[in-house]
Amino acid sequence: MARLNASSRHGEYVSFxxxxxxxxxxxxxxxxxxxxxxxxxxxxEIFGLSDWIRAVADQLAAxxxxxxxxxLLSGKGPNGGGTESVDQQGATRLIRTLTxxxxxxxxxxxxxxxxxxxxxxxxxxxxxxxxxxxxxxxAATYLPNLRGAVVYYGxxxxxxxLGRVAAPVLGLYGSNDARVNATIDRxxxxxxxxxxxxxxxxxxxxxHGFLRNQPGAEGANQRASDQAWPRTIAFLREVTR
Length: 241
Prior knowledge:
The protein is an alpha/beta fold.
C-alpha cells in the first residue's frame, strides 16, 4: 500500500460489464507518457485483487503500460462483494468456485476494456502469478489478437489447450516448485512441435511465488526477481511494438 500511496501515476477502480447481469471491478494504472500505451491484463493469484497485485500494476505503468487488474472474485463474496469482502483464506475458497468459462469471459472483457481506453494502443498482453499464471497461459488459447502472455510460476494447459495457443509465451519459474514445473516439459514439447514460441527460465533455488516473497529462499527469490522482471518488461515491449 505504501508504494501505491507514494506513486505519482494515476490509478483508479473501475467496473465494466462482462455479460448479461455480470460485471467486474478492476484496478487500472496509467503510465505517465504522451503517446498511447499498450495494455497488460494483470491476473491475480489465489488471494484475489490484493494490494500487492495493485502494486504490480503500478510498476507496469512505471514501465510504460496501461495495466488492468480485474478482481475475478467480483460478486462472489458476501453481499455481492469481491476480494475486499473476505480475508485471504476466504479468497482462496472463492477462487475454487470460478468456472473456466467464467474466468474466460471476465478476462476477455478486461482485455477489451483496456484496449478501448482513449490512451491505449490496441496491443494487449497478459501477465499472471501462481493461479493467475496458469490463467495467463490459458488466455493465450482464446484471447483474440493477444500479443503475448507472461506466466509466473503457473501450470501449463493440457495437451488440447496447448494446441490452441496462439501467442508467444514467456514462462518464469523457481527451481523449487515441483508441482508447477512438472507441466513445463509437456508445453515445451507440444509448442516446439507446433513451432510456437515458448521461452522458459527456471531460477535456481527460487521457490513458488518468488516475486511476491523476495526475501525468501536465502536470497534466491531476490536474485530470481532481479532477473525475471527486466526480462518480463523486455518481452512485453518486444511483442507490443
